[in-house]
Amino acid sequence: MVSKKAEYSTLELPFLIRGFLNIYFQLRTIRIRRKEISRLKALEDALNTINEEFEKASNNNENDKMKIFNVSLFMLTVEYDVSSLKFMILFQMDKWNKKYLSRQLAVLMYEATDDFLELLGKDYREMIKKLSDGETLLQMLNDIIKGLNEFKKKNRLILHEIRNYCGAHRDKNGHKQLALINSVESNDMLDLAAEFMIPVSKMTPYFSKVMKAMT
Fold first, then answer.
1. Stronger pLDDT, 33 or 114, i.e. the higher one
2. How far apart are alpha carbons 71 and 56 in whole angstroms?
3. Could you give the angle at which helices 186-201 and 134-162 cross, rounded to 10 degrees?
4. Does the structure show a pLDDT above 70 at 55?
């Protein structure tokens, strides 16, 4: 026969586990928030620094430098926006708002991938060739472009659909739009964002080397 004390302890155990898990996830959430806030602050500082360099180049009529800094600013702005949307999705409780933010993230990745590939094209490559250590920089650039092309090839279809039906509203088909909205899972978009950031994150060390080569 189980004693009343043992029976009480057995019943109490699930509550203790749930309490422990609740505390664990609360602490984990706090750590993630602090990490993301710190990351966003670092990106903001980097944007301000590059923008100052762009303005110096503009004042000195250094057109090539302006174009290179412009690409850097675009990259950092996209990274900031992706990080901000990820942060909001993670801590958004309302289901519809979570899906809305996830759709915005999908549209951003779709548009930014094409924009990056255009900005890092032939004219940009010619400017990089002129810099000291240009060959090494081009190798790094090729790796970034390869990653962007792989991401585009793998994910273009789903991102294109979300962008056309839920972002640009190219097709005014409400039934299709709602079905697509309901099919968008926040975790899937966060996974895609992590994949997208693999080539994008390589741009930061790349642009650091470009800046050193321009000094």
1. 114
2. 16
3. 160
4. yes
DSSP, collapsed to helix, strand or coil, labels residue 203 as helix
Give the pLDDT band (50/70/90) at residue 85: very high
Q: Are 66 and 58 in contact, with CB atoms under 8 Å apart?
A: yes
Cα 78 to its chain centre, rounded Å, is 7
The mean pLDDT value for 61-82 works out to: 92
Reduce the secondary structure of 131-194 to three states and give it as a string.
CCCHHHHHHHHHHHHHHHHHHHHHHHHHHHHHHHHHHCCCCCCHHHHHHHHHHCCHHHHHHHHH
Distance in angstroms (rounded) separating the CA atoms of residues 107 and 104: 5
10 or 140: which leads in pLDDT: 140
In the 8-state DSSP scheme, what is residue 94? -
CA angle 197, 199, 203 (to 5 degrees): 100
What are the tokens at 205? 């060390």
In this model, does residue 84 exceed pLDDT 80?
yes
Domain boundaries, the chain: 42-214
Element (H, E) at 65: helix 63-91
Question: Which is nearest to 84 in space by CA: 121, 54, 43, 116?
Answer: 43
Q: How sure is the predictor about 8, in pLDDT bands with cuts at 50, 70 and 90?
A: very low
